[in-house]
Hints:
Blueprint: E1 3-7, H1 12-23, E2 29-32, H2 38-47, E3 55-58, E4 63-66, H3 68-78, H4 90-118, H5 127-147, H6 161-176, H7 184-195, H8 197-206
Parallel strand pairs: 1-2
Antiparallel strand pairs: 1-3, 3-4
Amino acid sequence: xxxxxxxxxxxxxxxxxxxxxxxxxxxxxxxxxxxxxxxxxxxxxxxxxxxxxxxxxxxxxxxxxxxxxxxxxxxxxxxxxxxxxxxxxxxxxxxxxxxxxxxxxxxxxxxxxxxxxxxxxxxxxxxxxxxxxxxxxxxxxxxxxxxxxxxxxxxxxxxxxxxxxxxxxxxxxxxxxxxxxxxxxxxxxxxxxxxxxxxxxxxxxxxxxxxxxxxxx
Length: 217
């Protein structure tokens, strides 16, 4: 098997890459990385100096591919399957990349800010930063509510890269800022995502690790 994914089943950015792999039944070897283990952390940093996952190693093409969005696009280009993650149409491709960035920057990052703050000692927390992150999530939800008024996926009728980004962002985002009664379209979109077999599999495989998710104290 030429592909190896270095990842952790609880890490939200890793979910994005896993969804793409499962969407097209792409064979790969999973390598679970424990960043708390100095040996495993060093091995990951040797592959990708930043030392963050996911990282995809393709021995057949002698390529090391970091960063979740790049991994998905790499798979779409070199291991193409029934689901196309980047449309051939240039305008739709641009919109797909835009919404991928939207979910990563304006849903995923503020969600992470809140989650990471929960892990800090009480005297090191950042209540102002957390409130700003909550405000960003509420703004993002309002935008998604409008975008999803007609149903479907993030960019039209076809599941793609932006949906791979939306799934983990909304899963963990709903834990820190619930969608609320005014975001019925967001909730319906999230339910469609959870019903997608590829994402359902990712959630199922992550379940044994959910006790590690920081809860609000």
